[in-house]
Amino acid sequence: MLGIVMTTLLAACGSDGHQDLRDYVAEVKARDQIAIEPLPEIKTFETFVFDETGLRDPFVPAEIIQDSVEMSIANGGIHPDAGRRKEELESYSLDSLRMMGTLELKGLYWGLVKTSDGTIHRVLPGNHLGMNHGKINRILGDKIELTEIISDGAGSWNERQAALALAE
After folding, report:
1. What is the pTM of this model?
2. For the CA atoms of the chain, what is the radius of gyration?
3. Residue 147 sits in a domain of what CATH number?
4. Residue 143: pLDDT above 70?
């Protein structure tokens, strides 16, 4: 019995089961060839190198700000102090700053302000923060009050009260 089963299995393995595949490949090769159009020629473009050396940054209207400061000074109105050295917290927008708390040290009441990169800074009344020439007026337990100087776009400046509330 085992001999019959083995003979049947060996006979099945020995037969050519790929003949139908060979026939199909031969049929496909015998078909008429279709001409394929060549790919269109790719046009080359000349590159352009933009050199911004010596050009004004379009996002910083330096001349307009300087002119409006000079005009405001001449008129005796509100204006930012153009000669004052900028403080580190003035490079952050007011929205990206968070009041983290207060600290009393040697009779001074400090505010603790956290920047978007996680650094905590101590501030006092008179320090500046925010991109709109903000000057700290008062530091309270739950907020830091400041006055910002905003350009109205027409050459004059306006004061605006703002506050940093204690983060929860």
Report:
1. 0.55
2. 39
3. 2.30.30.830
4. yes
DSSP structure string for the chain: -HHHHHHHHHHHHHS-TTHHHHHHHHHHHHSPPPPPPPPPPPPP--------TTPPPTT--HHHHHHHHHHHHHHT-----TTSPPPGGGGS-GGG-EEEEEEEETTEEEEEEE-TTS-EEEE-TT-EETTTTEEEEEE-SSEEEEEEEEE-SSS-EEEEEEEEEBP-
Does the residue 131 lie in any domain?
A: yes
At residue 73, does pLDDT exceed 60? no
In a domain, 19, yes or no: no
Asked whether residue 101 carries a pLDDT value surpassing 60, the answer given is yes
Distances (CA, A) of 55 to 13, 50, 66, 113: 81, 11, 17, 36
Give pLDDT tens digits for 14-31: 556 788 999 999 998 898
What residues make up the domain containing 156?
Answer: 86-165
Whether the pLDDT of residue 38 is over 70: the answer is yes
Number of separate domains in the chain:
1
Residue with tokens 């983060």: 167
